[in-house]
Specification:
Mean pLDDT: 97
Shape: globular
Number of strands: 7
Number of helices: 8
Number of domains: 1
CATH architecture: 3-Layer(aba) Sandwich
CATH superfamily: NAD(P)-binding Rossmann-like Domain
Helix content: 40-55%
CATH topology: Rossmann fold
Strand order of the largest sheet: 3-2-1-4-5-6-7
Order of helices and strands: EHEHEHEHEHEHHHE
CATH class: Alpha Beta
Bound molecules: nicotinamide-adenine-dinucleotide
Distance between the termini: 29 Å
Structural class: alpha/beta
Strand content: 5-15%
Largest sheet: 7 strands, parallel
Radius of gyration: 17 Å
């Protein structure tokens, strides 16, 4: 675990997908770095447990449900007395060849992975505009950068997140910066099917230059960089955190 540096002292950050995996690690790490956080997740009980351990505010919320997002983000901003940043971590994955992918699954991936971040940013904008300097961090994927078998719906949703991020950066500057992280294979619930099997883990590690799977701490560090002043002159960026997966 990295040493806390106080780089988020005084910042008020909304994190989605905070019941599990990267969103949870980011919530925990941001509190260590001095931020106050408001946590959202479809899993109300899970996010409530994470928040309770951190002394943070939380609410159950489906990011694909615009009315629910409007209401939850308004309450989050009220609870923290404003918002200086957002991390869009909520996401879902269905690996199925595009010809076999159920249309309902395509719709849901677009609704959660792409429209979800739009819904959250739209609802948070009055708060972000009121902050002297604000940040948006969207968790995309290496799947946004390159085709992989069976990821048509997921990759399309995540590629959309990258262009949304650039457009947010363009439209919302200079006081709001928007950047994206493109994780490779990170050990979370989403990839449990892969890393629980030693053979699959070894094969996945062998594919990348740094010869290991990613940890949620790797993504927290990238989210910290993009949320604090260290990245003050970066906006619209897509930062791979993938051990060298996506440039092959
Ligand atoms: N794990 C990886 O290897 C990997 C790689 C690239 C990108 N990603 C992306 O990283 C992000 C975090 O995923 P993770 O690996 O931590 O997975 P995870 O499954 O551990 O966590 C995802 C969280 O999002 C929540 N969520 C799902 N749908 C939601 C909705 N509609 N509304 C609110 N919350 C919802 C889940 O309840 C869960 O708590 C996702 O956007 C995912 O697509 C993951």
């Amino acid at each position: 675990m990295s040493q806390a540096s106080g780089r988020l002292d005084g910042r008020r950050i909304l994190v989605t997908g905070a019941a599990s995996g990267m969103g949870r690690a980011i919530a925990e790490g941001f509190v260590r770095e001095g931020a106050r956080v408001a946590l959202l997740d479809r899993n109300a009980e899970g996010v409530g447990q994470v928040a309770a351990a951190l002394g943070a505010w939380s609410s159950g919320c489906d990011v694909a449900d615009r009315a629910m997002v409007d209401e939850a983000v308004a309450r989050a901003g009220g609870a923290l007395g404003g918002l200086d940043g957002v991390v869009n971590g909520a996401g879902i994955l269905d690996i199925t060849p595009i010809g076999e992918l159920a249309p309902e699954s395509w719709d849901r991936m677009i609704a959660v992975n792409l429209t979800g971040p739009y819904n959250i940013v739209r609802a948070a904008l009055p708060f972000l505009r009121a902050a002297p300097m604000a940040t948006i961090v969207n968790i995309a994927s290496v799947s946004a950068l390159m085709p992989m078998p069976g990821t048509g719906g997921y990759s399309a949703s995540k590629a959309g997140v990258l262009m949304l991020t650039r457009c947010l950066g363009m439209d919302l500057g200079p006081t709001i910066r928007a950047n994206a992280i493109c994780p490779g294979v990170i050990k979370t619930e989403m990839t449990r099917y892969l890393w629980e099997d030693a053979k699959h883990t070894a094969a996945a590690a062998e594919r990348v230059a740094l010869k290991r799977l990613g940890e949620t701490e790797d993504i927290f560090r990238a989210a910290l960089f993009l949320t604090c002043e260290d990245s003050a002159f970066s906006t619209g960026v897509a930062l791979p955190v993938d051990g060298g997966f996506s440039w092959r």
